[in-house]
Amino acid sequence: MPKSKRNRQVTLSKTKKKGRDHKETIVNGIKEAAEKYGSVYVFSFENMRNQKFKEFREQLKSSSRFFLGSNKVMQVALGRSAADEIRPGLHRVSKLLRGDTGMVFTNLPKEEVERLFKEFEEYDFARTGSNATEKVDLKEGPLEQFTHEMEPFLRKQGMPVRLNKGVVELVSDYVVCEEGKPLSPEASRILRLMEIKMATFRLHLICRWSPDEFELYIDGPDESDVECS
Fold first, then answer.
1. Max CA pair span of the chain
2. Where is the composition biased (Basic residues) (predicted)?
């Protein structure tokens, strides 16, 4: 009789070692990048979309290296103070790794990096819990954008619909979402069916470091939070 997979034992020491090895790989990668590239930028992101971000990374692969993950691990790699920083001034960068942030080491000119980040903007369907950017309401009557096969699904989403001679019909006005309010799972599904995109994936530069300069961008914290020269 084959052994049950449910009873298989997992050695916790192995899983811990794997996590530690992964962190060490990141730390070593950051240290190598700090020596290889001429500058490093910290950036924040909103409405992250992994596939779109992967495409952006690939676009800059020949000249840059991105790091995105545990802020704590990245801070340790750079050094949290002037005493343990791996290069002079990098502890200032470390202090700005808060919340939804990442780093990019690059040899690209400053103007090129600023242009790429400023122009980067990808629209996508909003997810459950995101705030609606506009009010979407549907008026009573036929909904010709939906086929008759969709009627049961729309009804499950809470929409007051019926079939009238093979046409999906709204029997009363219906508000899909209100501007500024979180989207319900049902609302996000309906918006997707209507092909209404309310999420914008953006990247914002926070700071730039090079061996002879440290620059804090407008999207960063107050200068009192970080030593500046």
1. 77
2. 1-20
